[in-house]
Amino acid sequence: MSELIVRKSGPLFGTVLIGGSKNAVLPILCACLLTQERCEIRQVPPFADVLALLGILRALGADVEYDEKKQMVHIQARRMKMGGGGEELAGRLRASFLVLGPILARKGRAQVPLPGGCPIGTRPVDLHLKGLTALGARIRVDHGMAKGRCRILRGTEVYLDLPSVGATENLLMAATLAQGVTVIENAAAEPEIVDLAAFLKKMGAKIQGAGTPKITITGVDSLHGARHSVMSDRVETGTFLAAVAITGGDVVLKNTPNDHLAAILAKLREAGAVIEEGVGSLHIKATGEILPFDVKTMPYPGFPTDLQAVFMALAAVAKGTSVITETLFENRFLQAAQLNRMGAGIKTDGRVAVVEGVRHLTGTAVTATDLRAGAALVVAALAAEGETQISHISHIDRGYDHLEEKLQGLGAEIFRQEEPAREAMAAAH
Questions:
Q1: CA-CA distance, 49 to 78, in Å (whole number)?
Q2: Whether residue 301 has a cis bond before it, omega within 30° of 0
Q3: What is residue 99's DSSP assignment?
Q4: What is the pTM of this model?
Q5: Active site residue 150
Q6: CA distance 91 to 232
Q7: For the residues of 391-426, what is the DSSP string, one character each?
Q8: Side-chain-facing half-sphere of 179: CA atoms under 13 Å
Q9: pLDDT by residue (tens digit) across 180-234?
C-alpha cells in the first residue's frame, strides 16, 4: 500500500494539462462491445478504473491494446462472451455494469456481476434493469449476478424515474441495435452522455437529443468501428482550480472543457478567485483569501456531486460560514470527519453540511474513504500547517492520473511513499 505525504505548499504557479474524462471514457470503452470491428479511443488516462475495465473487456473476449504513453486504446470485440470472468474487477467500479446493455444487444444473452465502486450511498441498478426490460429483455438477479436474455430488443418509450447517468448510458447503448425507435424520457443530460452519443454516432448509430431530457434512438442492424478522442475531465479541472484557489496561486489550465464548467466557475468566482477563460484553457489567479459560498449539488447543468467534497475543503478555510447541500447521494459527506481531524469546523445533518471556516488547517494522518473524498484531502493538505499523511490512496488513483506529479509541476510539496514499515509490521501481527 502507498500513501501521499503532503506538506503545506506556497501558492501554486505554472501550467497544467487536463486529461481525458473518467466519467466519459468508461462508457465509451464499453460501447466498443457493440461492434465486431476495431475501435480506437484516444485521451484515455491510466486510471485504476480504466485498467480494471480493460481487464473486464479482455475477460469478455475482446482484443484490447493499450498504449499508456500515448493514452490510446484499440479494442476489437470480434468474439465476445455473454459473460464470465472479471467478477473481482467488476467489484472495483460502478461502470462495470455498463457492459450489460451492449452484450444483450449483440448476443441476446448476458451475465454480468453487480457493480462495485465508492461507498457514497445507495446506487441501485433497478433503473438499468427496468429500462432493458422495457426493450424486451428478461432479467433476473441471482447470487450477485444480473442474468438477462432476449430474442430481440425492440424500441419503445422508457421513462426514467430519476435522470440516472448510468441507466441513460446503458439504455442508450442497447437501443442503438434495437429494432425500431427508442425514446428515453427524463434522461440524464451530462456532457459525458453527449460524448458517448458522439462516439456511437461515429459508429453509425442514429441518435437525437443527447444532452437533453429526451433522447431518441433509431435502431440500426449493425455498428462499425470508429475513432474518438474522449472529452476533457471537468472534475479534474475543478480539483485543480480548487487547489490553486486554496493556495493563492496563479495557474493556467490547458485542455479544459469550458462549455461544461459554468456552475463550477461561478462558485470559484463567488469564493474570490479571478478566472479568465480562453479557447480550451483557463487562467486562475487567487489571493488565498477564500470568501464563504453555498453549494447545492444537482444533475447537470447544476453543481456536480463529484466536486462537492473538494469544495468542502475549500470552504473549510473560508472567512465565514458556507452551507453545502448534497441532493444526489445520502452518504457523500465521508470526507467531513477527515477534514475535522485536520481542524476544520464542519457539522453535518443528513444531507446538509454547515462549514465554519477556520484560520488554518493542521496536517495529520487521514484516510481517503472514497475517490472524491481523497481528492478533497489532497486539496486541504496543500494549505494545512505541517505535514499530512493520506492513506488508502488507491481510491484517488481510480480517477486521477498522476495527481501528485501534476501538483509537483506547480510547486506543491507532495510525494508518494510506500506504507511505513511500522504499519506493515503491525498489520502482520
A1: 23
A2: yes
A3: G
A4: 0.94
A5: no
A6: 26
A7: E-THHHHTT-SSHHHHHHTTT-EEEEEEPPHHHHHH
A8: 8
A9: 999 999 999 999 999 999 999 999 999 999 999 999 999 999 999 999 999 999 9
